[in-house]
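So, can you check this one?
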Amino acid sequence: MAGRSGRAGAAPGLALWLGLAFAVVLLDQFTKVLVLGEFRLGDSRVVTSYFNLVRAHNTGAAFSFLHDASGWQRWFFVGLGAAASGFIIWMLRAHPGQRLFCFAVSMILGGAVGNVIDRLVHGYVVDFLQFHWSWLAPVFHGGHFPAFNLADSAITLGAICLVLDEVRRVRRG
């Protein structure tokens, strides 16, 4: 079977991709533990002229979508993350030879699981990375892009890699 033979050039196995996702989860959770231990909600520490470390809690989704709902969104996003995780694992098993694709969905899987853990443990997602530039002011209050975390970054990287993978596939086709 491809990916399990250990031969050079063989497709990486499911264990590699799940290991990569697990590494994302570990790094994400580790950084969140540091933030929770060092910052109080709303605290901000200037790092550079365009970057702050903050502590923010997001009960919603990206850009705080549904953050002000009555609480049902927590379980909706947990269920959505669990369903997406199952689908991603199925895709990893179905396409082991597509390295960029598998890397992309592994990043998305790790990020999704990291944020699901937050929702289960805390009831919200811990965000702490905040960029700000004056040119963002027309779109974001004070030019501050909404705070995010490493899980969100992994999901974004995965999405970019999915687009690149599709562009490459179309060009080859």
